[in-house]
Amino acid sequence: MKNEILKKKTKSQNKQLQAISFLRIIAEKNRLKILQLLHDKEKCVCEIWRYLDIPQNLASHHLKALSDFGLIQKRKEGLKVFYSLDKNNLEKNLDLLKKIFKC
User: Fold this and answer.
1) 75 bridge partner residues
2) pTM of the shown model
3) Per-residue pLDDT tens for 35-68?
4) How many Å apart are CA 36 and CA 95, to the nearest integer?
5) Which among 28, 16, 42, 27 is positioned nearest to 101, based on CA atoms?
6) DSSP character at residue 103
7) What's the confidence (pLDDT) of residue 10?
């Protein structure tokens, strides 16, 4: 019985930590703008940093954070790198928030 309670508590804590990490990633304004920009279709990194009006290296930093978390995917075409939303992973994180808040 005690092990079951500990497993439930740990599972609940893991969900909370995942939600916290997700919220930290999307709370940064440029990252949220990137997610919004990629909503409809993939974009080249050159389009993204110009849209954000920030230096390319800073845009790349935000793209890496989003990619590391699994919210976006990238593909190379020649010298260009294109980014798109990983809608499945985004949905998983949004569903997790719904479960935590019981929506």
Assistant:
1) 82
2) 0.85
3) 999 999 999 999 999 999 999 999 999 999 999 9
4) 18
5) 16
6) -
7) 83
- 74 φ/ψ angles, rounded to the nearest 5 degrees: -130, 155
- Please state the three-class secondary structure of 43-94 as a single string: EEHHHHHHHHCCCHHHHHHHHHHHHHHCCEEEEEECCEEEEEECHHHHHHHH
Q: Is 40 helix (H, G, I), strand (E, B) or coil?
A: coil
The class level of CATH for 2-96 reads mainly alpha
| CA dihedral over 63, 45, 77, 93, signed as positive or negative | positive
- Reported as a pLDDT band with limits 50, 70 and 90, residue 2 is very low
Q: What is the 3-state secondary structure (H, E, C) of 14-27?
A: HHHHHHHHHHHHHH
